[in-house]
Amino acid sequence: MNTRHxxxxxxxxxxxxxxxxxxxxxxxxxKTNVLTFAxxxxxxxFHEVAAEHPGVETAYNHVDAACIYFVQDPHRYxxxxxxxxxxxxxxxxxxAVSGGIGLASSANLNPARTGPSxxxxxxxxxxxIAGTNAANPTAAVLSAALMLDFLGEGSAASRIREACADxxxxxxxxxxxxxxxxxxx
Length: 185
Hints:
By secondary structure, this protein is of the alpha/beta class. Helices cover 49% and strands 12% of the residues. Helix 3 (63-72) packs parallel to helix 4 and helix 5 runs antiparallel to helix 6 (154-163).
């Protein structure tokens, strides 16, 4: 369910995040031409919050167009804000085009910190391969880096991201041990 309070909270966080990044750009992704009530709420709120952040550039993409641009021209994006439905689609797509959803981390943030935030791989769990030592743990480890960033531990988060760069494939145990070794070194 989309509420003004929830939508505004998401959009405000997107603009606050964009202000900390060099590109200073936020793209709203939705389907305003079809989901007219929810889309109107997101679009109105986006424009109202954007007016409070004149140093941040903005854009709007329908979700289907965003899927094309994620593949053809991903550098056009800095911060993307959208609802859960489209966010789920885009994070899976983003993971797939950047090496596989097994490498894609995610964070469901409560920026006000009035309740918990959640950090997990984009794909969630993989019960179909549980116990086979075949799951790539990189996304789970990178989700921990997102958590450390959120907790203000940027240096530790950077060490984890560096440890996850250019990993060879292998079993869960092998990849996990390699990441742990790189973090320790």
